[in-house]
Amino acid sequence: MMEVHDGAELCFPQLLNTSCRKPLISWSDAVFLCFLLSSVSVLTVSLNLLVIVSISHFRQLHKPTNLLLLSMSFSDFIVGFVFMPGEILRKTSCWFLGDLFCSLYIYFAAIALCSSVGNIVLISVDRYVIICDPLHYPTRVTVRRVKLFISLCWLCSNFYSSYLVKDDSLQKDKYFSCYGECVLLVDYTLAYVDLVLSFIAPVTIIVVLYVRVFVVAVSQARAMRSHITAVTLQHSVTVTSRKSELKAARTLGVLVAVFLMCFIPYYCVSFAAGNILNSSYGILVPCLFCFNSCLNPLIYALFYPWFRRAVKLIVTLQILQPGSCEANVL
After folding, report:
1. Stated pTM of the model
2. Residue 13's closest CA among 89, 87, 94?
């Protein structure tokens, strides 16, 4: 019993019976974790800022698909700016910022998680329509409609995150937790509802849509190869357009695949641990989720020439020149 109340192991030694114990992590592991997450956090914030500035500044990029990528980059920016620093504090030391900042951290972390899922679902729907119903894509998927759905995505994420914080406050009133930690407490009913709404339903939609997109894309690629030698000049333009659409589908397919590989382990382990965003299940899985937000801009740079051209104009400060928003980056 004396070891439990050893002041050296408590976050607040003066509060022997109500203080949390310090995280059981070695000094070397703490330094490594701080360096890793800090580096990934800075890289995530920087790269996603480049995406945000690129799509926001250049008018040529104001297209439905790019607006979805812009919304995704905002989610990734929140992960790098809020979620990662919060994880460093929670995993390597006691939480000394108080309940208010803990609630704000949970709120923004939940927004980043929910909006990421929503954006990936919207991206999947966008690719499904342009591949499976290309003739109606310009009329069905307009900039105005995409902005509307993006706004609804963020509004729902905000509402859901606010409800999580409110429920967390009610749970903490019922079940007192020690001082010096920042965790999210939810009841089993909300946990199972969250499992369906934030995990099972969206992942099912994403997988079903992309299986359909993959089947149609393969059949179209075969059709193009079989007729490529007998097309007219006018038809060759159509074939080139279809090739561009298929390439875009493959690119966003990689984006979705990477997201699922990083998101599914995070959510499975966090739910198995009994909480949604808590730290009792180790370090590797949340780091994997954070790393996904850093990978997305690298995927853009690898597959999208317009992003590389836009970054060049941003880094060289050419975007400060008058009329730079009309520059040709496509």
Report:
1. 0.82
2. 94
